[in-house]
Design a protein that fits this description.
S16 Ribosomal Protein, Chain: A; 5 strands; plastid
């Protein structure tokens, strides 16, 4: 099963998260299938590759709670009508 989840990057006390499509059995910093965006909680910036996210969601990938909230704020789910 594939999940859309956060992968921590950046330095100590200054985390930046990549949003990745990754196998459920992989660890947090494990090898991802594809990078589909990033999230910076300090500057509150987000970049999402919407076509890639929609592709993985259509194939059955499940977003984690945080990725779901980030995507919902970007109004990605209006096209798919997905409820969490």
């Amino acid at each position: 099963m594939v999940k859309l989840r956060l992968k921590r990057c950046g330095r100590k006390q200054r985390a930046i998260y990549r949003i990745v499509a990754i196998d459920v059995r992989s660890r947090r910093e494990g090898r991802d299938l594809r990078k589909v965006g990033f999230y910076d909680p300090i500057k509150n910036q987000t970049y999402l590759n919407v076509p890639a996210i929609l592709y993985f969601l259509e194939k059955g990938a499940q977003p984690t709670g945080t990725v779901y909230d980030i995507s919902r704020k970007a109004e990605i789910f209006k096209e798919l009508r997905i409820t969490h």
